Amino acid sequence: MYSLHQQYLDMATGFHVIELRDERGNRHLVQLAVGHDACPACGAVHPKNNLDSLDPVAAVRQISEALNSSQQQMLCYAAKHGLNIK
Amino acid sequence: MALKVNLAQINGAARGNSDLRETLTGIHLALQSLYAQTGAAPLNKIDAAPVAFTAPPAPSQLAVTGANGSFNVSITTPQNAPSAGAAAPRNATNAPIYQEISSSPVANFTSGVTTHPVSTSTSYVLPNPGATLYWRLRSSYNQQNWTSYRALPGAVSSGLLSSAAAASNLSLNQSNYATVDSVAAGATATVRIYGSGGVGTSWTSILGNGSKVIASGTILNVAYATNGFVVWDGQTYQLKPQLAQTFPDTWVPVGKVSVIANASGLVLPVVHAVVTGGAIVAYQIINAGNGLTAAPVLTITDSSGSGATATAVVSAGAVTQVTPGSAGSGYSSSPTVTASGGVSGGATGGGGATGNNGGRLYADV
């Protein structure tokens, strides 16, 4: 099942990086864009103005639940059909 | 029954098969030599003139280096070799020496051998990004009598083709199986990167002869009305506004995503017309636009000219090409090109967003 492996703020790229891993080493990255936006027409940058409303915990919970639900279904399927799991 | 054979017959029988001709000639010469030594004639000797045997030249020296995705092959002929230790003959007459280079992924050349065309050239640049090969060389004056193969002692790697060394529009020989898309998530959009198994599954990047599995990703809080090029930097995903920002050689371009909220977030392209002799001969894309899900209609207006038409081509939410139709006539130097439409089926995705598969990436810088 996926769980939090590490998280950090990458100032260079403007991402709050959250790495989820399961017991088999599979990874899923959740990256919250907290840096600036760039206008596609003129290239001007605009700082994010919604950081206070971001809820990374909720985001991780939601994504983890979705991944784990899918994984649980696959494991049940494997058990039902006697499949080896790689 | 006496067997009669001469070199002309061998050449005729072998035709274009140089290996067969070489083998038969060798047998013929060996038998002739045996006849000369013993006086016994295994074959009826019918050649009127003595066989002109051209000995192979002294060995040439082979050097192969790899850089920027290519093998650089250099051959030093005997006459140009350092004198120390050189054995005769030295090809003092500078006769042309035919060189045959071949390569293989294995040191004993038992499989995967690539033999390059025989030539008298002494330097080659052979593009083959990401390959590691063993190399050998043999030489001949007449393409019949060859020196033995001289192989380099170790394998040579060509290295990766750097973006700086790549020509424009060059296929980077890199494929991936990532899907990059975006979905609306309230006030912002979410960009997703995933594999063929669906959202949350990893994907495989293929680069040259290698491949690696890369984690899936979810990028949250992406502003609407933006274009982004998603690239994997080895640790995380990055979302860059310009394609050229994804070119560091150790990064893996993943795909382009065009994020819009709805039709109101559509950015129509800006196109300028190029006028020559009153006719519009070309179009310049000033702004490719964003969030386009259909080709916008281009209308050309001008104070004096008329009749020109053009068609926009859309890919990944933006205009990639404007194809001139009728050139029209009588145009001033600055007609106005107006884009309209650009959205199919009403509001795009009902407040969603558009994206596209990463697939194969072409450099165009």
Description:
The complex is a heterodimer of chains A (86) and B (365). Chain A has one helix at residues 56-81, and strands spanning 3-10, 15-21, 27-33, 37-38, 45-46. By secondary structure, chain A is α+β, with helices and mostly antiparallel strands. Chain A has one domain (3-81). The mean pLDDT of chain A is 89. Chain B starts with 6 loop residues before the first helix and ends in an 8-residue tail after the last strand. Mean pLDDT of chain B is 76; it is low at 344-365. The longest helix of chain B is centred in the first third of the chain and has 21 residues, at 18-38. Chain B is 8% helix and 38% strand. In chain B, β15 (226-232) and β16 form a beta hairpin. Chain B has 365 residues and is mainly β. Classes of the chains: A alpha+beta (86), B mainly beta (365). Chains A and B meet through β2, β3, β4 and α1 of A and β14 and β16 of B.
**Count of discrete structural domains of chain B:** 4
Mean pLDDT score of chain B, rounded? 76
Number of DSSP strand runs of chain A: 5
Unreliable runs of chain B: 344-365
Helix tally of chain A equals 1
Task: State the helical fraction of chain B.
Answer: under 10%
In the predicted model, the low-confidence regions of chain A spanning at least 5 consecutive residues are: none
* Sequence of strands across the biggest β-sheet of chain B: 14-11-10-24-17-15-16
Which features characterize this protein?
heterodimer, A: 86 residues, alpha+beta, two-stranded antiparallel sheet, 5 strands, B: 365 residues, mainly beta, Immunoglobulin-like, 4 domains, five-stranded antiparallel sheet, 2 helices, elongated, disordered C terminus
Task: Briefly summarize what is shown.
The complex is a heterodimer of chains A (86) and B (365). Chain A is α+β, with helices and mostly antiparallel strands.
Give the secondary structure arrangement, pairings included.
The complex is a heterodimer of chains A (86) and B (365).
Chain A: E1 3-10, E2 15-21, E3 27-33, E4 37-38, E5 45-46, H1 56-81
Antiparallel strand pairs in A: 1-2, 2-3, 4-5
Chain B: H1 7-14, H2 18-38, E1 61-67, E2 70-76, E3 98-104, E4 114-115, E5 123-127, E6 132-140, E7 150-151, E8 156-157, E9 174-176, E10 179-185, E11 188-194, E12 203-207, E13 210-214, E14 216-222, E15 226-232, E16 237-240, E17 252-259, E18 270-276, E19 279-287, E20 296-301, E21 310-315, E22 318-324, E23 336-341, E24 354-357
Antiparallel strand pairs in B: 1-2, 2-5, 3-4, 3-6, 6-7, 6-8, 9-12, 10-11, 10-24, 11-14, 12-13, 15-16, 15-17, 17-24, 18-19, 20-23, 21-22
Helix pairs in contact in B: 1-2
